[in-house]
Amino acid sequence: MLVLSRKINEKIRIGPDIVISIVAVSETQIKIGIEAPVSVKILRAELYEKVKDENRQAAEVLKEVKLPAELGKLKINILDNNG
Q1: What whole-number distance in Å separates Cα of residue 67 and Cα of residue 36?
Q2: How far apart are CA 33 and CA 10, in angstroms?
Q3: pTM (2 decimals)?
Q4: C-alpha to C-alpha distance for 55 and 49, rounded to whole angstroms
């Protein structure tokens, strides 16, 4: 882990297109601003963990679901744009 000291309005650049700015500092809190491409997902760590846990639980539920054997016999017809 890289640890840096920054003051208000100073920035940290990660690669060519991500910039982290120190916006405000108080006794118990630091506010940062993050500029990144829309394609970069930015989540607080606790939200990321919650989403990951919920996805894991959903996958476990799907494993427990018993589908009727008849579903395996179904055929899917796909029509193309030509008719």
Answers
A1: 43
A2: 11
A3: 0.61
A4: 10
Structure tokens at 16: 């060519």
In contact, 64 and 45? CB cutoff 8 Å? no
Residue 14 phi, psi (nearest 5): -115, 110
Residues 52-79: pLDDT tens digits? 999 888 888 777 777 677 776 777 767 6
Q: Which residue has the tokens 């760590």?
A: 45
- Three-state SS at 14: strand
Dihedral sign computed on CA atoms, order 8, 26, 24, 35: positive
